[in-house]
Write a structure and sequence with these properties.
alpha/beta; 33% helix; 8 helices
């Protein structure tokens, strides 16, 4: 949702929800920091765009630090806390075997409703690793359409050494190329993508650059 008008309510509701989950009553989340080569390259690409008006989509929990930094670059910032929204039971539909599963059509009718070629950059973070399986490929397909030609998408993937207890985090940008990670409780790592899986998932992008980061994280910068 955009940074103006009625969408502010959703922004700050998301921030409050994430903060509550990450800290718990009377507790402070322990942040860690890491250098992010992919982030540094994405930001350089944005700055090289010159005077044009930029649009950036952040798919993680709302970060005031990210909003402040990106608007300082002259960008319009949009925020969609996709993983939190995917926890809404209103998107569940009963299957033939009696189980309940998210209906992608219902989910995307209410989320990520943007026109084609809207964004210069998308900060996907590690959302695909935690998202329900049924939403992963439709999400990537929608993000590609929403990116402008030569737009950048930054995504992180846990490696095989990460372990299922690896915590989902809110990512705070500390320029020029550092991220502060604020752990958020309540989300479990769903899968591990290897390089081949990532290549296949983002096969329709023009290029992909892989960087092996710290903390068992693989950084991937995609260009449409």
């Amino acid at each position: 949702m955009s940074s103006s008008g009625h969408n502010l309510k959703k922004w700050f509701r998301g921030a409050e929800s994430a903060e509550t989950k990450s800290t718990g009553p009377g507790k402070s989340a322990q942040r860690t920091s890491r250098r992010c080569i992919g982030l540094g390259e994405l930001l350089r690409n944005l700055k090289s765009a010159g005077e044009q008006k930029l649009s950036v989509l952040d798919l993680g929990p709302t970060s005031p630090a990210n909003i402040s930094f990106l608007t300082g670059l002259g960008a319009r910032v949009f925020n969609e806390d996709v993983l939190r929204e995917a926890q809404d039971p209103g998107y569940l539909v009963k299957q033939e075997d009696g189980s309940m599963q998210i209906d992608p059509s219902k989910f995307f009718a209410a989320n990520l409703d943007y026109p084609p070629d809207q964004f210069d950059a998308i900060l996907c973070w590690d959302v695909p690793d935690y998202l329900p399986e049924v939403l992963v490929r439709p999400l990537v397909e929608r993000l590609q359409v929403m990116l402008k030609a030569k737009g950048n998408l930054l995504a992180f993937f846990h490696t095989k050494d990460a372990g299922p207890e690896s915590l989902y985090s809110r990512h705070h940008i500390v320029p020029p190329d550092v991220l502060e990670l604020e752990p958020i409780q309540g989300f479990r790592l769903q899968r591990i993508f290897n390089n081949r899986h990532i290549e296949n998932l983002f096969k329709d992008f023009a290029s992909r650059k892989f960087f092996l980061g710290r903390d068992n994280i693989r950084e991937v910068l995609m260009v449409r």
